[in-house]
């Protein structure tokens, strides 16, 4: 409720400039289990503007997982992001693409209430975001450090039976809020919010796919003529999730 209240206050400000885009996000997530405690996380997000025709972002993220127990997962890693010159109002003031290098730490808490699976994901990010000191440059010459914290709440419910097992369709709903902080934070202490409504299908313990509606509300770190800039994006999202158990192969070769 606190996050909803804070977000509502931001949106109620009159001193803002609004724009919108129609987006499509097509994502791969792969987890490689090494043993009972450790694993590797990989993902690539192919983010497009105008559903599919133009670039919005390219995001590659890798990390190391540590499972404290079935309900608590820790992850730390690195992400490389390219943000492109897209939309009616570009994020970069010079209308240029820019690169971001990101380090992150995450904890995810999971539990079950009846037939509903619930999760809470907390993420801390240290972001080195490319910036141009003047418009004549072809590449970024500055990478100031920006800090951001994220919280995502997700719930998913089977559409058949009482739990999500093999050959089970399900519906999932999530919301994630992003808050910037630190000395280099600009106009966007509230950075963005994402809401998704997905329909999924678990084929087996190794493969799960889901797709549906995505809404992204993004506040720029800069102002235009003294106005805060909000980009309200909506469109589709498709996720392909894979789990690979490498520990089985290790046991078989011993």
Summarize the structure.
This protein is mostly beta strands and 254 residues long. The chain is 7% helix and 65% strand. The protein has an eleven-stranded mixed β-barrel with strand order 1-2-3-4-5-6-7-8-9-10-11.
Describe the structure.
It is a single chain. By secondary structure, the protein is mainly β. About 5% of the residues lie in helices and about 65% in strands. A hairpin with a 2-residue loop joins strand 10 and strand 11. About 20% of the residues are buried.
What topology emerges from the helices and strands here?
Elements: H1 2-11, E1 16-33, E2 38-49, E3 54-69, E4 72-83, E5 98-113, E6 116-129, E7 145-158, E8 168-181, E9 190-202, E10 207-224, E11 227-245, H2 246-253
Parallel strand pairs: 1-11
Antiparallel strand pairs: 1-2, 2-3, 3-4, 4-5, 5-6, 6-7, 7-8, 8-9, 9-10, 10-11
Order of helices and strands: HEEEEEEEEEEEH
> Which class best fits the helix and strand makeup?
mainly beta
Rg of Cα set:
19 Å
CATH topology: Porin
Stretches with pLDDT under 50, minimum 5 residues:
1-6
End-to-end separation in angstroms reads 52 Å
β-strand number: 11
Beta content: over 45%
* Total count of helical runs of at least 4 residues: 2
Helicity range: under 10%
CATH class annotation: Mainly Beta
**Largest β sheet strand count, sense and barrel closure:** 11 strands, mixed, barrel
